[in-house]
Amino acid sequence: MYMRTQLSLAAAASAIGFAALPSAAHAQAFYLQEQSSRGAGRAFSGEVADTGAPSLWWNPAAIAGIDRPDAAISVSAILPKGDVVDNGTVIRRPGQTFAPIGGDPVSGDPISKGVLPSGAIAYPINDRIAVGLSITSPYSFTTKYDETSWARYSATKTKLRTFDIQPSIGVAVTDWLRVGAALNVEYSDATLSNALPNVLASLPDGQQRLTGDGWDLGWTAGFQMHNDVVTVGFAYKSAIEHKLKGDVEISGLLGPLAASNATLSGIEARFYTPAQIILGARVKATDKLTLNGQAVRYTWNKFDAIRLGAPLNTALPQNYRNSYSLAGGVDYDVSPRFTVRAGVQRALTPTQDGERDARVPDSNRWNYSAGGTFKATDSLSFDIGAAYIDFADATIDRPTAAYVGTAAQTPIITSGELQDARAIVLTAGARMRF
């Protein structure tokens, strides 16, 4: 009975640990920045300093002083490509020497294509005060590895969805100062699975699967200072402690491990997503040309560990580091009804060499974007944006182990690489001012 409990808890700890480990996205680790079709065309280089509902996610001060209701929606198609390649990963089963992990040595396109919708609306209470609401999905992804992949003990299928509801208020304090504050109400839902090694390589793998969800709270505050030429914006989005509660199913273990097949319910995992410190500016260089710049600091060091509740009562180190992104872009008014945009963004990954696994094959990247707005009427406009994201090759090299602390402990020395990764993101949206 003791062996069964110990093995079950060890396997469950491994499964729950993956609950908070999404795969590479398009801004920082598993954060998705595609929350505005207007911003997509300039590589998200001016959002904290721009005005109206399209910028509400970045800065609630953006809606202060609006003169009429404002609504915006956008949809992004995210089309990633890339390979996760084995460079000599080995496993040591109980009583044996290290041997090759086996399985398919190349996992092509493990990050699934996806569609990301978002929307925001703002309503003026008077000429200085406005309220608003944005709905976004800032941490969402799906990855799939074949059950025959070399990375199967890290991940087979992973699916995470978050929904952020942000009620906001903005106030024009003076003719040159706007301030705003917001509450971030986030719902998270995760389903993920991975293989478990049996004691002999000739035996089929076992499986473990986790499902969990939870509601959590954060906040955002910001300001904008402006005159006829320059607008400077600053915002702080708080870190959020996520608490997922769910079930772990362990099956398919054979021989001496068979007793650890089990279903554990009501297990809680706690982890943080980072705060964002956002500073940006928009400069009206001419009557037609606006220059944009934005820097974001992400406090990913908050994601230092995943803390597991009873009956596991342990912590799984993640050791992310703080990181940042820098972006510059332009808006150019070709005519009163047509604006073109372009931008470039550089973003550094918070994952570190020696700590990166196949479930999070993230790396530094460049984002090259272009887009535009067509103003159909004085009230209705349409936005489009397209981005090419180029990811640097990066090592997949985090050592792991199954059944840690038991007689069946099975270490895995990971040696792999993310290669030729890139993504195309196509965004379209509309804005209505009533």
TrEMBL record:
GO molecular function terms listed in the Swiss-Prot or TrEMBL record: long-chain fatty acid transporting porin activity
Swiss-Prot/TrEMBL keywords: Cell outer membrane, Membrane, Signal, Transmembrane, Transmembrane beta strand
Subcellular locations according to the entry: Cell outer membrane
Signal sequence annotation: 1-27
Gene Ontology CC annotations of this record: cell outer membrane
Topological relation to the membrane, as annotated: Multi-pass membrane protein
Family of this protein: Belongs to the OmpP1/FadL family.
The name this protein goes by in its record: Aromatic hydrocarbon degradation protein
Biological classification of the source: Bacteria, Pseudomonadati, Pseudomonadota, Alphaproteobacteria, Sphingomonadales
